[in-house]
Amino acid sequence: MQVVILAGGLGTRLRPLTYKIPKPMVEVNGKPFLEYLIFYLRNKGLRNILICTGYISEKIVSHFKNGSKFGVDISYSNEKSLIGTGGALKNAERFLNKEFILLNGDTFIPLKYNKLIDNYKKSGKNIIVVNRNKKSQGNIMIDGSNIVTKYDKTKKNLGYNDCGVQVLKKELINFIPKNKVVSMENNIFPLLIKKKGLIAFETKQNFFDLGTFEGIKKFESLVNKYFRNIN
Q1: 88 in helix, strand or coil?
Q2: Contact 9, 21 (CB under 8 A)
Q3: Direct distance between the N- and C-terminal alpha carbons of the chain, in angstroms, rounded to an integer
Q4: Which of 79, 101, 123, 177 has its CA 20 to 30 A from that of 89?
Q5: What is the dihedral of CA 70, 73, 79, 83, to 10 degrees?
Q6: Mean pLDDT in the chain?
């Protein structure tokens, strides 16, 4: 299955590091974080990768090129201005397969992607990966059938946390206007939830947000656990 990586953000929380490089290219133990992510995807058999770039895109393109050096096939879609997660997908519409995995270029979670894809195909719906928070915090609410019933990034009491991984159908792009700032979470998810078209895939794996200095430090401490043979 195709993997689409969103890598166009400004990375304001990581300044001054991100004044000269895009957020996914911030180094962890001497390698850009995006390299770790691509290595992990490759080892899970996911080699068809589309990177949606924006801010200082040339740094990403010059490092990864067509991906052959890293054992994958990489193509690019570049946005000239910040147009949100949905806007980035609309901009990349011509490159998208009928179904694809969507990842953030600044987060990592060690998933069993074959299980995620099987779950997606059996459900016939769009999927979002979530973590259960024992303290009942989180921005996602689901029912007994794993149907997502509420998504609100401003809430912290809905029970489940968004892990930044989705499996989506390209037909969703039809709901996104061209050249507009559109958020998948704020503008598209409510439409899916209303039609019971978004389900949760629950995982207990650790989730890393590399968009903060604290997140980088946490990921750094566990690199050897997940990436012993990266090359």
Answers
A1: helix
A2: no
A3: 23
A4: 123
A5: -90
A6: 88
